[in-house]
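Support reply, case 0932

Customer input (verbatim):
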Amino acid sequence: MKRLLWIAAIALVVVSCNKDQKAVKRLDGTWNVSSWLATWNGTTEEYIADGYTFTMKFDNCKLKDEEFCSITMTEAYQGSTDSYVMEYRVAGGGTSLEIRDLDYPSELTYFRIDEMTKDKLVLYLDEGDGDYSTLTLNKE
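Our regenerated output:
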C-alpha cells in the first residue's frame, strides 16, 4: 500500500511539472497588455490608455524546480520607454505565474492565471484588502 502511495505521489509531481513546462512554452514570446483593470478602494480604473503600451516578453526555458526564466517588461508613454529584466516561473500545475525582481530575488509577485490560450492570457493579482488587478494580454 505504501508503495502505491509513493508511485501516486511521484506521478502527481511529474504531471504538475509537465503542466508548468507546457505553460512556459505557451508563454514564450511577446505579449501586449490590452487591458489593465485595477480596483482600489472599490473604484476600478483602466490603466491602458491612448498612447500607453505595456508588453511582457517571456523567454522560453527548460523549467526545473526552483529555477526561473527571463522576462522583459517594457512600458512606453509619450515618447519615453522603460524596460525591466526580471525573472518568472510557472507553478501550481500551470495556474500561477511568479515574478521577481533580480535585485530582490526573495520578493515574489504571485499572479493567478485565469486563462491561457495560444494568443490570450488573463492574469489576476490580489493586492490585499479587497484591491486587485486584472491584466489581459494578447500575443504578438
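We compared this against your earlier run and they match. Two observations from our side: Residues 2-27 form the longest helix (26 residues). Strands lie at 29-40, 43-46, 52-58, 69-77, 80-91, 96-101, 104-116, 120-128, 131-139. Please reopen the case if you see a mismatch on your end.
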